[in-house]
Specification:
The chain is of the alpha/beta class. The chain folds into 2 domains: 3-219, Spore Coat Polysaccharide Biosynthesis Protein SpsA, Chain A; 226-304. Helices cover 43% and strands 19% of the residues. It contains 9 helices and 9 strands. It has helices at 14-25, 46-56, 73-87, 106-117, 167-171, 188-198, 222-243, 247-270, 275-295, and strands at 3-10, 32-39, 63-67, 92-96, 100-102, 121-130, 152-154, 162-166, 203-215. Strand 1 (3-10), helix 1 (14-25) and strand 2 form a beta-alpha-beta unit. Helix 6 packs parallel to helix 7 and helix 7 packs across helix 9 (275-295). It is globular.
Length: 309
């Protein structure tokens, strides 16, 4: 029987965590599942308290919780992997965010693609569930649109929002797995998978491994979408500058940024009657601005603010 550990970093979202754990309890799978919650709030410890309550109520799966005092998503993920490798024999380690919850077939879909592709890491689909409908303007901006793809091998994974990894690859990856320099900015996942790709890791997509992600009203606003686009550009450029030494690729990236800056005003005029297309242009522009800021040494600590509960 396949053993899978599901790791969940959490920070002050007890309602979201409860919904996620409820969803995991409803999984339709014959795999042996265990769950590890990493509570990054050493003061309130709401995630730890919830896990203790569920254990007493005979929760379906073995459920552990640990507290990581040092604030930061990279620190929480590193503690998650460290504990998983030390205290579990799981062949695979999955990661979900505490504002997500899985479809009942989620794990089986992941395991099928792992078997078919022999990938070291597989990403699944993310379907948004909006607390407040953002309207047509949000339809084409990647940071708020659904994450879907074609099942099978892919060249790169960009996030840990819905992921499963092989134990073997994690054991062979240099520590720290997630760079603490990205603790509050985000982008620690892009840096991690970039390093894995450079070491020869194989990636795949599982579009039937679906999780649903809550989008609170505070994230359904254009101001937040543009800030997220800026942050993604900022952290992506930091990763590029960390690993890329090719003058050709750096020149190509610079040309893309200049192209976005020059063409965006004209595109905004041309797309004046299409809210979705207009927002897509703005997202590209803000992303380019984030890249420029990274080149200048500026970082944006997006995760200082918590959205949702």
């Amino acid at each position: 029987m396949v053993e899978v550990l599901v790791g969940i970093p959490t920070f002050r979202r007890p309602k979201g965590l409860a919904r996620l754990l409820e969803g995991l309890a409803k999984l339709e799978t014959e795999a042996h599942v265990s769950i590890l919650v990493v509570d990054n709030d050493s003061v309130g410890q709401a995630g730890n308290a919830l896990c203790e309550k569920l254990r007493k109520a005979n929760y379906r799966w073995p459920l552990q919780a640990i507290i990581v005092a040092e604030r930061g998503i990279a620190q929480a993920r590193n503690a998650l992997v460290e504990r998983a490798l030390a205290n579990s024999q799981a062949e695979f380690i999955a990661m979900l965010d505490d504002d997500e919850w899985p479809d009942s077939n989620w794990l089986n879909a992941f395991l099928r693609v792992l078997q078919q592709t022999s990938a070291d890491a597989v990403h699944g689909a993310v379907v948004r569930r909006f607390e407040a409908d953002p309207g047509a303007w949000a339809s084409r901006c990647p940071v708020i649109a659904p994450l879907r793809g074609r099942t099978g091998p892919i060249e790169m994974i960009h996030s840990t929002s819905n992921i499963i990894l092989s134990r073997d690859r994690l054991e062979r990856t240099k520590r720290p797995w997630f760079d603490p320099m990205f603790a509050l900015t985000g982008g620690e996942d892009k840096e991690f998978f970039t390093r894995m790709r450079l070491s020869g890791a194989r990636f795949a997509w599982a579009d039937d491994a679906i999780v649903f992600a809550e989008v609170p009203a505070s994230r359904s606003k254009l101001t937040w979408v543009l800030k997220r686009s800026y942050r993604v550009g900022n952290s992506d450029m930091r990763v590029l500058l960390k690993y890329e030494r090719s003058a050709r690729i750096l020149a190509f990236e610079a040309a893309k940024i200049v192209g976005v800056a020059l063409l965006s005003p004209l595109q905004l005029v041309m797309q004046a009657t299409s809210p979705g297309a207009r927002t897509a242009v703005l997202c590209r522009l803000w992303r380019a601005a984030g890249k420029i800021a990274a080149v200048c040494g500026s970082h944006f600590n997006e995760y200082e603010t918590v959205h949702g509960s």
